[in-house]
Amino acid sequence: MGARGNKPRQGARKLAALAVSAEAIQSRILFLRGKRVLLDADLARFYGVTTFNLNKAVSRNRDRFPEDFAFKLTSEETKALIFQSGISKPSHGGSRKPATVFTEQGVAMLASVLRSPRAVAMSVAIVRAFVAVREMLVGNQQLSAKLAELEHRLESHDESIGNLFEAIRQLLASPRSGPHA
User: Fold this and answer.
1) Residue 29 DSSP label
2) Sequence-distant (≥ 6) Cβ neighbours of residue 107 within 8 angstroms
3) 138 pLDDT band (50/70/90 cuts)?
4) pTM of the model
5) Closest Cα partner for 127 from 102, 149, 144?
6) What DSSP character marks residue 86?
7) Which candidate among 26, 98, 159, 165 keeps its CA 20 to 30 Å from the CA of 131?
């Protein structure tokens, strides 16, 4: 088969890589300051660039990244992430500067700043991952509400069953009356 015959397989491989990346992306989404975000180092890995170059592109286009698109972590947030996720401490080869994190909107803006075909494709995959996480959270909230409703129903059933047993106990405890007494 010629080079032309290989094209569909290469395209299929790219789609498979994006599907795997979507799972990897979802696992890296963090919740900070009430927002779902991704670390600059994770995004750089997804985009196939260095963290330095990603942050340099952002700093050259700072007006495209307001605080609700991207922000630097405080030292307390960084310490918490080091503790929770095991990212490297600066003394052990980790970043010497506070990490920048990007919201879903910041990720969408990164595609216009980085401009490579991979960056565009990865931005689409990352935004889809954010949407999937949001849908899972909504689904979990709905499930939680259903469980609370079910728990309330069971509590009322428990009360009814308790009343039934009490009535049976009273019938058993009362002296027999009637023709066969």
Assistant:
1) -
2) 38, 43, 123, 126, 127, 130
3) confident
4) 0.60
5) 102
6) -
7) 98
